[in-house]
Design goal:
Blueprint: E1 9-13, E2 16-20, H1 29-35, H2 50-53, H3 65-68, E3 74-76, E4 85-93, H4 100-116, E5 124-125, E6 137-138, H5 139-150, E7 174-175, E8 205-206, E9 210-211, E10 229-230, H6 248-253, E11 272-273, H7 278-288, E12 301-310, E13 316-320, E14 326-336, E15 339-349, E16 357-358, H8 366-374
Parallel strand pairs: 3-15, 4-12, 4-13, 6-16, 13-15
Antiparallel strand pairs: 1-2, 5-11, 7-8, 9-10, 14-15
Helix pairs in contact: 4-5
The protein binds calcium ion (3 copies) and zinc ion.
């Protein structure tokens, strides 16, 4: 859908790509504000068998950076205009959704995590440790990921939209580069491990923001802004060749408990991501540093997601039902050079008749609240 007279519109889902770029489009931030609506449905394909046969398969990136071909892009949640303050983002369940009471628990728990911004090591567990049956997909983990897209985050890994398959989707998100090496350059480097600092990526153009001091996405800087994070490879620590991705295999290669960025595409049957990764929290905080990319100034915002209830009139509307596995369809406008804000976001998750969803019936945080009352006698 293109709204307005001029616009850039793009849609990609898996291997099918379609781009329409009206010739009238000009990169002018003043006039683009209202008229530019890139819409990117993101989704993780789940192929039964592939996931089960390869259970080991599958900081951060902003939505629109790849579509626009512009590494400097930072995408903010709905409502941010460049002014300081509390940014409330509303979340609704569409009245026509399936499994509304189950989704409400998943939304409650996911909002708690995105609002908390408390990264965890060991956040990605597999069955049986996860508590998710090995023949089911954890709806809450998928919703948590899709909410991240709705807030402006992309995949830190090349993912399905690269057109690549299998393990190659785990390399760090990049543009493929032009010239003689115009495809993705997928050399694992001396360590043989995908998506590490030793990767040799030829002319691929990095889109993955990393912590300048250590290029370690399983850590986070005290202050997150453009003084501490970059996606310019020239800012990597000495000896590093590319951005390290917060993928499960990389975490285990570092001797950590299994950890993976929530925004890393690809989830397995029986897997649960029960907390944010450091990379996820860092990307939200980088956005919160605002249009000047400097923390502690009058462009900074605090992000607060708020659950409203049953409606289709929120900043983010969630609906279960339909045939695609899961995606968040977003549109946005430019608010400043290289800064975009989402202006509409819809999450769609497949019908329970197609995906064997697991629903967590525990509202996190509530039990602790009740305990604090009972302990007072
Ligand atoms: Ca490597
Ligand atoms: Ca290349
Ligand atoms: Ca700022
Ligand atoms: Zn995704």
């Amino acid at each position: 859908m293109i709204k307005g007279g001029t616009g850039v519109f793009g849609q990609y889902a898996g291997r099918r790509k379609r781009f329409i770029t009206p010739s009238a489009w000009q990169p002018n931030p003043v006039t683009m504000n209202r008229s530019v609506f890139p819409a990117l449905p993101f989704f993780a394909m789940l192929i039964p068998g592939l996931v089960l046969v390869s259970p080991a398969a599958q900081s951060g990136v902003f939505a629109f950076a790849e579509l626009l071909g512009e590494p400097a892009t930072i995408t903010h949640p709905s409502g941010y205009t460049g002014a300081a303050g509390l940014l409330e983002v509303t979340v609704c369940i569409d009245p026509s959704s399936e499994s509304k009471s189950e989704l409400e628990v998943a939304i409650h728990n996911s909002i708690r995590l995105w609002n908390g911004l408390e990264p965890e090591i060991g956040n990605a567990t597999l069955a049986p440790e996860s508590g998710v049956p090995s023949n089911k997909v954890d709806a809450e983990s998928v919703l948590l990921h899709e909410l991240g897209h709705c807030l402006g985050l992309g995949h830190p890994n090349l993912a399905s939209e690269s057109g690549l398959s299998g393990d190659n989707r785990r390399f760090a998100k990049s543009l493929s580069g032009n010239g003689p090496d115009n495809g993705y350059t997928l050399d694992r480097g001396a360590d043989g491990i995908i998506a590490t600092a030793a990767d040799s990526r030829g002319n691929d153009i990095n889109l993955h923001w990393f912590r300048k001091s250590n290029n370690d996405p399983f850590t986070i800087a005290t202050t997150v802004d453009a003084t501490t994070y970059s996606n310019d490879l020239a800012d990597l620590p000495s000896g590093h060749q590319f951005a390290t991705v917060a993928g499960a295999q990389v975490s285990q290669s570092q001797g950590l408990e299994r950890s993976e960025a929530v925004m890393h595409q690809g989830i397995h049957y029986g897997e649960k991501r029960c907390g944010l990764g450091h990379d996820d929290a860092a990307m939200i905080r980088l956005g919160m540093a605002g249009t000047d990319r400097t923390a502690g100034t009058d462009t900074d915002y605090e992000l607060k997601l708020v659950f409203v209830g049953e409606s289709s009139d929120c900043d983010i509307n969630v609906k279960m039902g339909g045939s695609s596995f899961a995606y968040c369809s977003i549109s946005g406008g430019m608010i400043a050079p290289n800064h975009w804000a989402i202006n509409a976001a819809q999450i769609r998750m497949a019908s329970s008749s197609l995906i064997n969803w697991h629903f967590n019936d525990e509202r996190e945080g509530d039990s602790m609240f009740r305990d604090s009352f009972s302990s007072s006698n």
